[in-house]
Amino acid sequence: MNTSVISEKAIIGKNVEIGHFCIIEDGAVIGDNVSIGNYCIIKKGAIIGNNCKFTAYCEIRDNVKIGDGTTFGSRCTISANAVIGTNVTIKYGFVLTDTPVLENNNEKVVGLVGDNTLIGANVTLMPGFNIGKNATIGASSQVRANVGDGEVWFGSPAKLFKTK
């Protein structure tokens, strides 16, 4: 018995595993060989690349784009319109937040995460900031600035530790 709700307007690739109690909304596109754990929500218009893995309780909001080979630990929340690169490893408890820009009709500002990046557990990426390619963010960090390519940051607020 399938206990998940999958929209007929979602596009699901080959060899996709969807756990129990998941919701996949209209217009979501899920690539091949993707594993979606229990209690995950994939909102409308989200695009998930091939060979991605989501553990339990992840929420991927409207129009998020996730590249191939990206993995998420449990309890991750990605705000609408965010972009996550390819081969990104995100440990559990990651939150990519957004905020409205009042002078722009409440348009939301979100960040992006570059390719081949490692994000430790319980990290928060504040609105409008980006994490570059090949970067590393230490566990329990709050990112309040742009992180450049190949940089290692940690702390709350996160600070540059070194460049790889």
Q: Trace the largest sheet across and list its strands.
A: 3-6-9-12-15-20-22-24-25
SS summary, helix count: 0
Most strands sheet: 9 strands, mixed
**Mean pLDDT figure:** 94
Backbone structural class: mainly beta
Query: Level of helix content?
Result: under 10%
Cα(first) to Cα(last) distance is 48 Å
Looking at the structure, what is the overall shape?
A: globular
Order of helices and strands: EEEEEEEEEEEEEEEEEEEEEEEEE
List segments where confidence is low: pLDDT < 50 over at least 5 consecutive residues.
none
Strand content: 35-45%
Number of E-state strands: 25
C-alpha-based Rg, rounded: 15 Å
Can you offer a commentary on this structure?
By secondary structure, this protein is an all-beta fold. It has no helices and 25 strands.
What's this entry about, in short?
The protein has 164 residues and is mainly β. It has no helices and 25 strands.
Furnish the topology, listing elements before pairings.
Elements: E1 5-6, E2 11-12, E3 17-18, E4 23-24, E5 29-30, E6 35-36, E7 41-42, E8 47-48, E9 53-54, E10 59-60, E11 65-66, E12 71-72, E13 77-78, E14 83-84, E15 89-90, E16 95-96, E17 99-101, E18 107-109, E19 112-113, E20 118-119, E21 124-125, E22 136-137, E23 142-143, E24 151-155, E25 158-163
Parallel strand pairs: 1-4, 2-5, 3-6, 4-7, 5-8, 6-9, 7-10, 8-11, 9-12, 10-13, 11-14, 12-15, 13-16, 14-19, 15-20, 16-21, 20-22, 21-23, 22-24
Antiparallel strand pairs: 17-18, 24-25
